[in-house]
């Protein structure tokens, strides 16, 4: 197993090439965050009743933001009691422990993933709506951490909102984009994913075809491989050098890894091993920022228990329908009427119609 650190990759030429490149980046990091979120929630559930010093330490790891104070009262009304909408924000910040992960230094912080997870009232099957990171949106006025107003902006990429106004601004932007009330948010980063894998002692994956590697990527033969945290991060972010080089191939790798990681947790009985459990929880909470209603181990544990009937392996993932922007073919815009149908179904906690899942912009 070797890491490929060869030279830069030449971008595809022409409109069709740019479209393919744009589409291929849409789910970048999405399954990383999903694996991290569900693994963390499972760990937190099992931590109830731990020693005070353990609780105090882990509780101190979690950072939180008061959404009501940061956003104010101009928010969508909650329509269905019992349904939950959780915004999962994956930060690609290289600050702190993220400094040398997956590609080295990148200034600022962007949302590598923006994922709205809907859990129906009394339901067991969650739905995750992935908003492509290069979607052009109108960012509303937001407040920075000092309470100063940041003027809104039209035609800005949604992945830039995190670095401009922080997670509360991402929540406000998604609420105004969708009309859906966001009940909670969870922000995670690369270091948290790597830490969880290393706390498990690695994860074993099996490939039916090789990964040939690309810039900053990983090279693996077909067969079984034990991956540490660093290589796991490269594995789930691989696109070029595997299958057809599109997001379809990358999604397949991410699904493989999610299944393998959950199997590893079960195999090790990690949730029944106090020492292993502590390492998992410590790694997960270090990378975590939430809204204030989830901003403690107790609150996070209570929330996780309320979701115990939801099976992460049956989660349906839908990409927000988008179309290529006519001005800049490297960007996409929200497609109508599909998006309106999708958001309306979520607001009313109804089944999402098939027509709302069709996106004019498709992988090439």
From TrEMBL:
Biased composition (Basic residues): 17-28
Superkingdom of the source species: Bacteria
Ranges of Polar residues composition bias in the record: 1-11
Region of interest: Disordered: 1-28
Gene3D superfamilies linked to this entry: LCP protein
Cell envelope-related transcriptional attenuator domain mapped to chain residues: 110-266
Assigned keywords, A-Z: Membrane, Transmembrane, Transmembrane helix
Family under the similarity heading: Belongs to the LytR/CpsA/Psr (LCP) family.
Name of this chain's protein: Transcriptional regulator
Species whose genome carries this gene: Streptomyces venezuelae
Source taxonomy: Bacteria, Bacillati, Actinomycetota, Actinomycetes, Kitasatosporales
């Amino acid at each position: 197993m070797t890491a490929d650190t060869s030279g830069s990759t030449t971008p595809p030429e022409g409109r069709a090439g740019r479209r393919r490149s744009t589409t291929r980046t849409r789910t970048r990091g999405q399954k990383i965050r999903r694996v991290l979120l569900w693994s963390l929630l499972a760990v937190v559930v099992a931590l109830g009743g731990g020693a005070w010093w353990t609780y105090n330490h882990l509780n101190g790891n979690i950072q939180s933001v008061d959404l009501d104070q940061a956003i104010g009262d101009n928010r969508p009304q909650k329509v269905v009691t019992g349904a939950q909408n959780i915004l999962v924000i994956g930060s690609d910040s290289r600050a702190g422990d993220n400094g040398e992960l997956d590609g080295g230094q990148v200034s600022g912080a962007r949302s590598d993933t923006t994922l709205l997870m809907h859990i129906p009232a009394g339901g067991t099957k969650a739905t995750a709506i992935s908003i492509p990171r290069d979607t052009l949106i109108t960012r509303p006025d937001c407040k920075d951490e000092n309470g100063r107003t940041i003027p809104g902006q039209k035609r800005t990429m949604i992945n830039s909102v995190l670095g401009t106004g922080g997670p509360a601004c991402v929540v406000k932007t998604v609420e105004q984009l969708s009309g859906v009330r966001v009940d909670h948010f969870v922000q995670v980063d690369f270091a948290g994913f790597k830490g969880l894998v290393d706390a498990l002692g690695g994860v074993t994956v099996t490939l039916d075809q090789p990964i040939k590697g690309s810039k900053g990527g990983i090279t693996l033969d077909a067969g079984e491989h034990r991956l540490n945290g660093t290589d796991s991060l490269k594995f789930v972010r691989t696109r070029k050098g595997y299958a057809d080089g599109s997001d379809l191939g990358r999604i397949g790798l991410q699904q493989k890894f999610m299944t393998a990681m959950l199997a590893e947790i079960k195999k090790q009985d990690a949730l029944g091993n106090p020492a292993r459990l502590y390492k998992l929880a410590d790694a997960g909470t270090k990378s975590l920022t939430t809204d204030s209603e989830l901003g403690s181990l107790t609150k996070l544990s209570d929330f996780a228990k309320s979701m115990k009937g939801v099976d992460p392996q049956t989660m349906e993932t839908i990409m927000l329908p988008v179309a290529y922007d006519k001005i800049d073919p490297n960007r996409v815009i929200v497609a109508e009427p599909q998006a309106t149908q999708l958001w309306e179904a979520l607001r009313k906690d109804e089944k999402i119609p098939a027509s709302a899942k069709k996106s004019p912009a498709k992988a090439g």
